Amino acid sequence: MILRRENLQTWKVAGLCISAIALLFLLILGAGASPMEAAVKLWDSAFGNPLKFSNTLKETTPLLLAGLAVYIALKAGLFNIGVEGQITIGALCTAVVALRFPGILGIVLGSLAGMAGGALWALPAGWLKAYRGGHEVISTIMLNNIASGLTLALVAGPLKDPSQEGTTTRDLAGNTLLPNIIDSNKWQLNLALPIAIALLVLFSIWLKKSVAGYELRMVGANPQASEFAGIDVKKSIMKAMLASGAVAGFTGAVLVLAFEHRFFHGMSSGFGFDALGVAMLAGATPLAMLGSGLLFGVLNKGSSAIQILGIPKGITWIVLALLIIVFAAIRYRKEGSHE
Amino acid sequence: MPPALKMDGISRRFGAVQALDKVDFSVEKGEIHALVGENGAGKTTLMRILYGSEIADSGVIELEGNAVQFHMAADGIAAGIGMVSQHYSIIPELSCLENLMLGAEPAWLIQKDEAKVRADSLAVQMNFAFDWDQHAEHLSPSGAQKLEILKLLWRNARIMVLDEPTAMLSPSDSDALFASLKLLAQSGATVIVVTHRIPEVLEHCDRVTVLRGGKVVQALPVAGSTASQLAELIIGKTVDLTPRTASTKFGSVTLSCENLTVKGYRGDQAVKNVSFLVRSGEILGIAGVDGSGQRELFWSLIGRLKRESGSIEFNGKEIAKNSVAERLEMGFRLIPEDRHGEGVVDEWPLEENAAIGLQRQPSLCNGLWIDQANRKEMATSMVARFDTKHGGLEKPISGLSGGNQQRFVAARALSTEPKVILAFQPARGLDIEATRQVYEAIGLECVKGACAIVVSYDLDELLDNCDRVVAMNRGKLFEPTIGLERDRKTIGELMVASE
Predict the structure, then answer these.
(1) How distant, in Å, are the alpha carbons of A143, B82, B123, B218 from that of B27?
(2) B359 and A1 in contact by Cβ < 8 A?
(3) How many CB atoms lie under 10 A from the CB of residue B230?
(4) pLDDT per residue as tens digits for the range B10-47
(5) Which DSSP string do the residues of A109-173 spell out, in sequence order?
(6) What interface predicted TM-score (ipTM) does this complex get?
(7) Rounded to 5 degrees, what are φ and ψ at B27?
(8) pLDDT digit string (tens) for A286-321?
(9) Which residue of A has its CA nearest to B398?
């Protein structure tokens, strides 16, 4: 009987995915374009040639890291909507430190500073949740706004590059950057991608096989049972939120050290929110984020390309939102009764 | 005269399981009819079909000779069938009157005074008394049940089904309940009691139908049948109903509480100045009606709830300040009251559920990592211990029946040489055979030097299986005088005695 239910679920997932795609086609038709043409264009913009593919991978890298940040919190039963803010704070901290200490030292210290900044920004939300029962969704949304305002003030004021018009810091020195491991005319691949993949793999093993990973999952799945199993649930929530914030901060560090080489206002452009989708689509297997991260990367890149066909950029968001709702509806469907 | 209720050839299949197989069930007007059987025998399904909340694949239902067809619970209610389920549906925030009317309000606008007149007349008919404006949260378990019965009368139910009605009641409350049911039956109502307590059937019921494996084994008058005969019909083989012999060889004091006071979740003192001790080798039973402080006592013994004052000593050492984790390491093991909420992760496979609470035991964890092979081995022996039926260790525990989940959780608590076994209704949802097995296994651990504290709302279960039984009553613990540790009458009185 269990087996049958699982099969049913697979069918439902497949069916709903197909309906989501069908709806996308209708939307594209509604926008006055040909769905086939749009699909070809989307594919081409993401995978058309090595350079385009390299760019897609570049877009995917922070999504993987930010997805991991969301995922860690999610496993402890926390919905960290604050990843965007934690990325921003982390990125700023990294930029400040890396500007101060050039070279390898700057890369290492900058990354650490980014992680510390991200964790610090997650701390109030974790504390409120664990010890005061404040809902993390509300507090992290608030913290996002504060992060945005605070970094803008800093980068428009004391940290501003005086030679620039915009709200940006100076550029990092050339030796303070995360290097490209492949850098030809055709292919470009930054060290950050293998780092992100390695982190995902390590986390995946840790989550499945370590005692602490087991306890983290228990806290997320049944906090009351966790208390009786000797786990300090409040501490676990704090730890999970801090770890989530640290990984988000590291995402910001990667943005600065690998891709942007400076901090400027609005540089994260919503990675923290896309990451919610990346993590949720992955479901029970963290390594599935490799797939969901790439999907978001492709759609982010491709949505700019299909704008040429007169299709609004937001259309890909609609698809993603639909997918997430569908997956969430299936996954979190509660059985009516147990006994 | 046709019987009040006649169900003919009722069958119902759930997937691969034939829950009911051509069941014939008939009840005369004015009788108290017991429906007995093990878990999974089909009692609940049959009653749900009668009530309309489940639809039979085949079969006919007749009420006083007229065939009826129910498609939903509302149909059953309209035809005069009412059900009190094991878990009461009283809403604590509403007044007793509001609860009484809920879902069956006489009109759009509630005329409170008119409603009260009818409510009172129903209560008088049953010899009950209610303060209708009082919030239902103040009701005792037996009060809540009385209100549930009045709810059925309010809906003009003529056939009443009560599912395990005495599960939460003290012996004297149980007797009072059956006295009211007799009144009802005499007034022409028909009462069906679903129960697993054989003494109750023998003492209070007129006829009994025994279900086993979805089939009717026999329907017989209660007069002239015996406990062992009924038990044999229920299980399908001869059973030994003799209680476990109480042990008398005890070791040193393992666990003791001195003037323990614990605050409950509402801020009141749920455990008041409780003192007791358990010796190595001993099974101590704690009797009492639901909500007498057993839960808070257990929570503070395992370390989940801080005590307000008093001491808890383990092997002579004060442990009241130790965390749950530390107590688990000392060898405390819990069979929790609420399996879903406190004992398992529903969506996890059995293999992962096997480690809950044991995840930091040296046998399971080598340094930072869980020893996957050992965990599998442990899960395998846990399911084997009480014959847990499952579809594979990698399948989620939610796929198991309640009884099988309980077997698994009990086996887990007894798996790693426990020193103090805290068992809250360890036999919940278990059949006679499995209940015996679980208590035997607890006894075995005690012979090896552990001690056990068992809470149950079923006094007979405790008397049959524990070496000594005490009673909790409104947060206080009462010990019977020496020599009467297993005396039913004495302990039954302690459960309800007023101060």
Answers:
(1) 66, 15, 26, 13
(2) no
(3) 22
(4) 999 887 778 899 999 999 999 999 999 887 788 888 99
(5) HHHHHHHHHHHHHHHHHHHHHHHH---HHHHHHHHHHHHHHHHHHHHHTTT--TT-SSSB-PPPP
(6) 0.83
(7) -130, 130
(8) 999 999 899 889 888 888 788 877 777 777 677 777
(9) A338
Give the residue among B270, B206, B184, B174 at the shortest CA–CA distance from B34.
B206
**Whether A210 and B368 lie within 8 Å, measured CB to CB:** yes
Q: Which amino acid is at B290?
A: D
Closest Cα in chain A to B405: A339
pLDDT tens digits along B306-340: 999 999 999 999 999 999 999 999 999 999 988 88
E-strand spans in B332-475? 332-335, 365-366, 369-370, 420-424, 451-455, 468-473
pLDDT at B271 over 90: yes
Q: Which two tokens stand for residue B447?
A: 């012979």
Distance CA A76, CA A236 (A): 8
Chain A environment of B340 (Cβ under 8 Å): 338
What sign results for the dihedral spanned by CA atoms B392, B395, B396, B398? negative
Which of A29, A1, A13, A42 lies closest to A306 in space, CA to CA? A42
Task: Give the DSSP letter string of A197-229.
Answer: HHHHHHHHHHHHHBHHHHHHHHHHH-HHHHHHT
Tell me the whole-structure pTM to 2 decimals: 0.83
Q: Is residue A337 pLDDT above 60, yes or no? A: no
DSSP label at residue A179: P
**CA–CA separation, A39 vs A79, rounded Å?**
33
Scanning B155-194, the segments in alpha helix (DSSP H) are 171-186
A contacts of B343 (beta carbons < 8 Å): 225, 228
Other Cβ atoms less than 10 A from the Cβ of B186: the count is 9
Residue B481 confidence class, pLDDT cut points 50, 70, 90? confident
DSSP E strands, chain A: 180-183, 188-190
